[in-house]
Amino acid sequence: MRSKAAAITAVTALVLGTSAACGSGDSSSGAGDGTIHVLVYGDAANKVEKQLVDTFNKTSKVKAVLDTIPGADYQQKLQTVINTPRAPDVFFNWGGGSIQPFVKAGLLLPLDDFIAKDPGLKDNFLPSVFNSAVVDGKPYGVPMRGTQPVLLFHNKQVLADAGLTPPKTWDDLVAATRTLKARGVTPIALGGGDQWPTLMWLEYLYDRIAGPGLFQRALGGDREAWASEDSRRALTTLKQLVDAGAFGSNYDSVKFTDGGSPALVAKGKAAFELMGSWYYSTQQDANPDFAKSGLGYTGFPALNGGKGDPADVVGNTNNFYSVLKRTKHPEAAAAFLELMYSDEFVKAQLAIGNLPTTTSTVNFLDLSASPGYSKDQYELVKAAPSFQLSWDQAYPPSAMTPMHTAVQQFFDGRLDTDGFIKAMQALPTS
Amino acid sequence: MTRAARPGAAATRPGFVWALPAAVFFLMFALTPLLLVVVLSFTSWDGIGEPRFNGLDNWTALLHDPVMIQSVWTTLLLTALGVVTQTPVSILLGVWAAGHQRNRAVLSAVYFVPLLLSATAVSVVWRAVLDPNFGVPAQLTWLFGDGNLLGSKGGAIGVLTFVGVWQFTPLHALIYQGGARAIPQVLYQAAAVDGAGRVRQFLHVTLPQLRNTIITSVILMVVGGLTTFDTVLILTQGGPGTDTTVTAYYMYQKAFKGFDFGVGSAIALVLVVVATLISLAVVRLSGYDRMRGTAEGL
Amino acid sequence: MRRRPNVLAGFGSLVWLVLVGLPLYVLLIATFRTRSDYSTGGPLKPPARWTLQNYLTDLSNGFGQDFLNTLTVTAGVVAIVLLVVPPLAYAIVRARGRATGWVFRLFLLGLAIPAQAVIVPMFYVISQTGLYDHLIGVILPTAAFCLPVCTLVLTGAMRDIGPELYEAMAMDGASPARVFRQLVLPLSRGGLSSITVFAALQAWNGFLFPLILTQSDSTKVITLGLYDFQTEHGVDVPGLLSAVVLSMLPVLIVYLFARRALVQGLTGVGGK
Fold it and tell me: Which CDD domains match (chain B) (predicted)?
C-alpha cells in the first residue's frame, strides 16, 4: 500500500487525464487496523515522546506511530490535515484557543468517558494546568510536556554592581531601572522583533493590577473589559516604564529567537529580561558560565494597590495531547494518555529539563538537571492561584497577528491607550 | 517579415502537440490550484469544516481593511525600490563581468555566490550582521546610531531593499553579463572610430543593445518584488507594526496564522492579478510576446 | 583593443566585493566558532578557538537521509523540466498556430503566481491523488512552478537560432522531430544548462512544498532539516549557519563547474 509504484500509477493516470477516477481510496486512513498516529511538534523534546511510544508498543496490541512536524509551522500543518483522512489519532497542542476551532468543528473527543474509567487522567495533574485544555466545560487534553511559567530573570553581577537587589515590588523595579539607566546599562532586555516577548509584559501587568478576571471577561467576549479603569491603569503604568527608557531604544531590532536579547543580559549590557522558564536552558547552551553563576530569577514583582495576587503566574501552562473523534482505537488512545502520569514519563521529562505537571512530580525533582530551579518553578506553579495561559494562545488563532501588531505599536507609541483598547476590542473572541 | 510561409516550410513547423505535455502538466499543478483559490475566495473557510459560500463578503472586507490597502502600497513601493536599485547595479556589474579579464572572472565567481543561498539563509545571515548590539551597527555607531534599523518604517524598508539588492543582483547581473557578451564588437569599434569614450559607448551602444535583456530582467524583478515573502517573514515579520506587511505576507498571516482561508485566497488573487497585469503591460509595451527571434525582432 | 584600466569600475567592484563578502565572511567564520564564543564575541570577530564541532553535530543529526531525499527531488524536477520544456519552447518559437501563442501567454501569467497563493488547494490536489508524503508529491508541484521561468529562458535561447538554418533543414524535408533533435537541441545547449541549473536550485532550496506536502522522516529534505535544526536547538546560530554551509556545498560545486554554461545560457534570455 501507498508504495512508490502506486504513486507513479497515480501520476500516469493524472497525466492521462483520468484523475477523477483515481481517488485516495482508503489506503490513507491509519493503514491497517493496528495503529494510532501520534502527531507531535518536532523539537528536542521528541526523544521523550519516542521513548513513551516505545514503552506503549511493548504491551499494546494497537501500535502507536509517532509523526513529528518541524517547529513553528506545526499549527499550520495540523490545521491542514486535521479534517482529512491524514489526520492523526492523538495530537500535540497548546490547549486554550489552539484547540477551540477543532472543538467547535466537532472534531475532538471530550475526555469525560476516559476520565470516568480512569479518574487518574484528571486527578494526577495540577488543576491550574489541566484546566487550560477545558473548553466549554469539557476536558479535551492531557498535559504531556513541561510547564513554562514566565519569570523575571536578571544578571546578578549587574545588579550587585549597581547596589541593587532583585525587585520585590513594581516600585522597586522602576527605581532599579532609573539607577541602571544612569549607569549606562539597558535596564530591561526585550526581543521586540519577535513580538510575543513584548506581550508578556502586558499579561503580567494586567494580572497584577486587575487580577486574572479582567482578561477572562475579555476573552469571554466582554469588550468593555478592555475599556475599564483597571485596563487603562495597566496600560499607563506600562507606558511610563517604556517612556522612561527601561527597554532602551532599539528593542524592535532585537530578537530573542536569534539569541540577541539573552546575549545582552549574559554580557551585562542589560540587567533584566522577562521570559519563559526555557530561558535557563537557552542561557545554558549559549552562555554556560553565565547560566551557572550569574543568572538570577524571581517571580514578577507585586504591585501596590493592585487586585491581582502576587503569586499569580502567566505563561505556557503545558502542552497537551488531544484525541480525535474519528480515531478507530479510543481504548488504545486512552491507554496511551495514561502513560502521561507514569513515573517513567515524569523522570524522562525531568531529565531533559522539562517540568511535568503531574502531582507526583514533586517526588522526583532531585532527578532534574537543575533541581533547585525545577523546585522553585514547581512551587511557584503549584502555589499560583491563577496560571494565565499566554494571551496569544488563549485567543483563537485568528487573533494572534492583530494582537501582536497592537502590542508592538503600543510600545512604539504609535497607538495610544485608546487606540490599543480599540484594537483589543476588535479581536475575534470565541 | 511576412507571415506567408514558403512552400514546404510548414511541414517542418512543430504543431500544438509539442506544447501539450507542458501545458497539461502546468494546468494540473499550477492552474487547477489557482482555480480553486478563485472559488475559495468566495467562501468562508477555516480549513477544517466545509467551505461555506459567503458571496462577496471577503472582498468587501478587504476593500475596507486598512492593513490590506496599506500592504498593497508597501508592496508596490518595495517593488519599485527593488527595480530602481537592482537594475543599475546589476547592469553595471553584468557589463563589468562581461569583460574577459582574468581578475574579473575570479571576482565574479565570488559575486554570484548569493545566488546559491536560499532566502532563509540570506535572511538569517543578514540578521546576524545587522544586529544592533553585536553586529556591524554596534561598530559603526556614527553611521547607525543606536542601530534600531528595524524599528522604524524607513529603516525596515531600507533594510529589505538593501537585502533584496544583495540577494537578487547576482541573478540579474548574470543575465546582463550574457546580454552584454552577445553585443557584436563591431558596434563598439564603430563607436570608437566616431570618437566615443567609454561612457558614451556605454550609453549609446551597450544600453540600447541590452533593451530586451532589460525588459526580461525587469519583469522578473517586478514579479519577484510583488511576491516578496521569506525575507519579510524572517527579517521584520511585517513590522514595526504593519509597516512592512507586504501583500504576500499579509496573505500568509490571514490564511496560515489566522486560518481564514477565504480572505487569504482573496488576497492571493489580488496578488496574482496585480502581478499579471504589470507583467502583461511590460510584455505588451515591449512587444516581447510577438517577437519570435532576434532576426524577426528587428 | 587594450585600453587604460577602468578606475571607476575597479573601485565599484571593490565596494561590491565588500558588500558581498562581509555577510559571506560572517556566515563562514561563525561555523568555526563555539556557541558561547559567538554569543559573547558577536558575529564579526574571528574565532577565539577554531572548532569543527558544529559540522560534526550537523552530520550526526541525520543529514544523510535528508541529503538523499533532496537529491531525488532535484533529479526528478530537473528530469521533468528537461522533458517538457524544450518541446514547448520549440513550439512557441516555431509553431504558427494561435494556440501556442496563448500557451506562451499562459506561462507568462504563470510567472506571477506565488507558490504561497496556491498552497492550500495544492495540498488537496496532492492528497487526493494519493501522493501526500511521497517525494513525487513534492517533485510535481515544484517542477510545475519552475516551468514559467524555464520556458522564458529557453524560448529566449531558441530564438537565437537563425531562420536560415531551419530553412536549410526544411529543404531536406526534415520532420519537426528531426529538426528538434538535430538542430534545436544542439544549438540551445546553453539555454538547456541554464534551465537545468535554475530548476535544480529551485528544487534544492525549495521549502514551502516539502513543508506542507510531506511529514515523515523518510521524506524529509535538507531545507526542512535546517528548519528542524533551528527549532530543536533554539538559538544556536553557529550550528544553524554550518548547516546552511553544508546544504550549500553541493550547489556551490555544481555552480563552479557549470558557471560558464550558465552564463552562456542566460545570453538568450533577453532575445539577444
Answer: TM_PBP2
A121 phi, psi to nearest 5 deg = -65, -15
Are β-strands A186-189 and A270-276 bridged in parallel, bridged antiparallel, or unpaired? Answer: parallel
Q: B240: cis peptide before it, omega within 30°?
A: yes
State whether B10 and C96 contact (CB < 8 Å).
yes
Handedness of CA C179, C183, C186, C189 (dihedral sign): negative
Kindly determine whether residue A71 and residue C228, on different chains, have CB atoms separated by under 8 Å. Answer: yes
d(CA C42, CA A416): 36
Residue pair B251/B271 in contact (Cβ under 8 Å)? The answer is yes
Cα dihedral sign, B273-B277-B278-B283: positive
Q: Note whether residue B219 is domain-resident.
A: yes
Which residue ranges make up each domain of chain C?
A: 7-51, 61-266
Closest CA to A430 of A182, A20, A102: A102
- Cα radius of gyration rounded to whole Å, chain C: 23
Out of C20, C121, C170, whose CB is closest to B12?
A: C170
Q: At B30, list the grid cell.
A: 499550477
Is the whole model's pTM more than 0.80, yes or no?
A: yes
Strand bridging mode A320-323 / A387-389: unpaired
Structural domains counted in chain B: 1
Q: Is the pLDDT of residue A296 over 90?
A: yes
B19 with C87: CB under 8 angstroms? yes
CATH number at residue B137: 1.10.3720.10
Question: Which H or E element spans position A387?
Answer: strand A387-389
Q: In which residue are the cell numbers 531562420 written?
A: C163
Q: Does B144 reside within a domain? A: yes
Q: Which of A210, A393, B26, B141 is nearest to C102 (CA)?
A: B26
Measure the CA–CA gap between A129 and A109, rounded to whole angstroms: 19
CA A397/CA A70 separation, integer angstroms? 19
- What does A71-82 look like in DSSP terms, one character per residue? GGGHHHHHHHHT
Partner A contacted by C39 (CB < 8 A): yes
Q: How far apart are the first and last CA of chain B?
A: 9
SS3 for A298? strand
- Distance CA(B36)–CA(B42), nearest Å, equals 10
**pLDDT tens digits for range B188-241:** 989 989 888 888 888 988 998 888 788 878 888 888 888 788 788 878 888 788
User: A37: which strand partners?
Assistant: A65
Q: Does domain C61-266 have CATH number 2.60.40.10?
A: no
The amino acid at A3: S
Four-CA torsion B99, B104, B106, B111, nearest 10 degrees: -100
A-chain residues near C39 (CB < 8 A): 259, 262-263, 266, 286-287
